[in-house]
Design goal:
The radius of gyration is 19 Å and the shape is globular. The chain starts with a helix and ends with a helix. The chain has two domains: about 160 residues, UbiA prenyltransferase (Tetracycline Repressor, domain 2); about 130 residues. Helix 12 runs antiparallel to helix 14. It has about 290 residues and is an all-alpha fold.
């Protein structure tokens, strides 16, 4: 049962929570052991909070998941995990995680509660609204970044990075909706009502607009943000961002991994290499130059 509960909590999705490290990295505090430990604790707690939201989401979407070609294999939808066990696990997890979050930081605890409530609203209502559904996903990423800032003392965090986080999440979100339309075809609307408000040409336009804005925003950040070298060395990280975004767009149009961001991150070697090289270049520029 523990294995099935963990599977329902979707640990493969937890990679999204590493954006909580953004404040620590870009404020040049990687060498601060206390800050590092506090942020890592925040990542762990947020993984559990997001896992809790997936547990509750699967209980709310039980009937819809049972009719979905892929989601019907999930533990709750398939009947392998009894609903009563899932409810008990959700209650226990909530009683452990939220008090721990408030102990780490009151503001961090509030963000965890807001994120949880937002995701509940998303599961029940907001995910059925075209455009709003993707904006809510983007807001979830902004909350993650904010969570990492509230557990440490930040000297400076560029507002450009909030904008960039929002745009990148929108890019990935619209990309995932496109992949769902392609995969589900005529049955798309029966599995996700919001898909009735989308079409492939419309989503392609959204994706190009958001992709362009993402690249422009990142370029502006590298040249204008504080805490970056005055010699503009941060510009040397731009090629890795450009390649990563274009690679994801390539996978999206070739329908590989269903274009699910977490699957791409875990399985596509070129994307992994781009992220690794980008991360190394950022650390070199911010900490060694």
């Amino acid at each position: 049962m523990l294995k099935l509960i963990l599977e329902t909590m979707r640990p493969r999705q937890w990679t999204k929570n590493f954006v909580i490290l953004a404040g620590l990295v870009f404020d040049r505090q990687l060498g601060n052991l206390e800050s590092l430990l506090r942020v890592l604790a925040a990542v762990l707690l947020f993984c559990l909070v997001s896992g809790l939201t997936y547990l509750v989401n699967d209980m709310l979407d039980l009937k819809a998941d049972q009719a979905h070609p892929e989601k019907k294999a999930r533990p709750l939808a398939s009947g392998r995990l009894p609903v009563k066990v899932a409810v008990s696990a959700a209650i226990i997890l909530a009683l452990l995680v939220f008090p721990a979050a408030f102990l780490l930081s009151f503001a961090f605890g509030l963000i965890c509660v807001v994120y949880f409530l937002l995701m509940l609203a998303y599961s029940k209502w907001l995910k059925h609204m075209p455009i709003i559904d993707v904006i809510v996903i983007a807001l979830g990423f902004v909350l993650r970044v904010s969570a990492g800032l509230f557990v440490i003392t930040v000297n400076y965090f560029s507002p450009w990075l909030f904008v960039l986080t929002t745009l990148l999440a929108l890019f990935l979100g619209f990309g995932k909706r496109r992949a769902e339309l392609v995969a589900l075809e005529a049955q798309a609307g029966t599995h996700r009502k919001a898909l009735l408000g989308y079409s492939i040409p419309l989503l392609d336009q959204y994706i190009i607009i958001v992709l362009s804005a993402t690249l422009i925003t990142y370029c502006l950040y590298t040249f204008t943000a504080q805490m970056t070298p005055e010699n503009h060395a941060m510009m040397f990280t731009i090629p890795f961002v450009l390649y990563g975004l274009l690679r994801y767009l390539f996978l999206l149009h070739h329908n590989q991994f269903g274009a699910a961001p977490e699957e791409v991150l875990l399985r596509d070697r070129p994307i992994q290499a781009a992220i690794l090289l980008w991360g190394l270049s950022v650390i070199i520029v911010l900490y060694l130059l």
